[in-house]
Amino acid sequence: MTAAPAPRIDADTLRRLPKAVLHDHLDGALRPATLVELAETAGHTLPVTDPEALAAWFREAAGSGDLVRYIATFEHTLAVMQTRESLLRTAEEYVLDLAADGVVYGEVRYAPELMLRGELTLPEVVEAVQEGLAAGMAKAAAAGTPVRVGTLLCGMRMFDRTREIAGLAVAYRDAGVVGFDIAGAEDGFPAADHLAAFEHLRAESVPFTIHAGEAHGLPSIHQALQVCGAQRIGHGVRITDDIPDLAAGKLGRLAAWVRDRRIALEMCPTSNLQTGAATSIAEHPVTALKDLGFRVTVNTDNRLVSGTTMTREMSLLVEEAGWTLDDLRTVTVNAVKSAFLPYDERVALIRDVVLPGYELAG
Fold it and tell me: What is the pLDDT of residue 200?
């Protein structure tokens, strides 16, 4: 007997579902109108100045299938994120956009070293972003849509300041910084080149994730986990290279390690399509990996650059990959379980916010 299809989840329900996002870049999440205004103030020339046309330009450039070109779009957002005032504004608006999207917990990442073209110091960059995030969280709570946002500081893997940025993450771990990451072009810039940063973080008990398994394959994931000691993997779509037959679910040793030790994969479906790491939403590895019991999470990566939201990512998975409400709850719980938060706070967030929200939707 053929099972009845799962009931369709309407757009309003999807928007209201409690969500958690672990992989999202602040400099890839500006509002188009804000970018236009800040660019005019900074004297920076944009490809177009109409906010809607600018948003379309980002989507087209990011959708080229070329990770290098995808990353190059950030020259425009970073150009306007070089002052205290611009960081305060973009951080506050980021939080309010999460709240409007139904996100109850988020981790936002950025590279402070890329925001020093003005006269800000590294600590001043971090403090401005934290102040903006705090203002956004206060406004969201006052509006009845509370959201908690932690920060990941990124070192750039093609430069030599990762140890310094790791020290910055340690210094601000009691002021809203919850972890560390390395970002930038993956292929040709191995994570192991930055072992000093990871050793310092481990010595100071600060968690970290590493971008791996997106533009480069299994060696990148292996190195991130077994050499550097990452607690999560950013993207990780290439872990399927170690599962020759996804349908049969026979895992290689690295894939088994990732699944059995509940290492979270921070998957970003739309972004992965844009960079060529996946071919379609319907065939994106996140579905097969979810069904095989991997701790997958769903993320936006870059809201402006990818033209997406958490609601949109979930909607695409429902419409094109057949996801159900149970699937969405699973990946949301996965994300909170893997958040760089104390255990008791994760448990409370799941028990008091996430699960009741899905029960109401069901």
Answer: 98
pTM for this structure? 0.94
Catalytic residue among 107, 186, 214, 266: 214
**Residues 250-264: b if buried by 16+ CB within 10 A, e if exposed:** ebeebbebbbeeebb
CATH class, range 18-354: alpha beta
Minimum mean pLDDT among 27-31, 57-61, 86-90, 288-292: which range?
A: 57-61
Find the largest Cα–Cα distance for the chain: 68
Contact 191, 210 (CB under 8 A): yes
Question: CA 227, CA 212: separation in Å to the nearest integer?
Answer: 13
Closest C-alpha to 213, from 106, 296, 292, 328: 296
Q: Does the annotation mark 113 as catalytic?
A: no
Range list of β-strands (E), the chain: 19-21, 103-110, 148-156, 177-183, 209-212, 232-235, 264-267, 296-298
pLDDT in tens, 60-111: 888 876 666 777 789 999 999 999 999 999 999 999 999 999 999 999 999 9
At 83, which amino acid appears?
T
Does 27 belong to an annotated binding site? Answer: yes
Distance CA 336, CA 341 (A): 8
Tokens found for residue 214: 């997106």
Taking only the tens place, the pLDDT of each residue in 314-350 is 999 999 999 999 999 999 999 999 999 999 999 999 9
Note the helical H segments in 43-150: 51-62, 67-72, 74-79, 84-100, 122-142
The pLDDT value given to residue 278: 85
Residue 301 labeled ligand binder: yes
Q: Is 211 annotated as a binding-site member?
A: yes
Helix axes 325-337, 310-321, angle to 10 degrees: 140
Closest CA to 296 of 328, 329, 341, 266: 266
Smallest Cα–Cα separation from 70: which of 316, 298, 304, 238? 304
The answer to whether 23 is annotated as binding is yes
Task: State mean pLDDT over 297-320.
Answer: 96
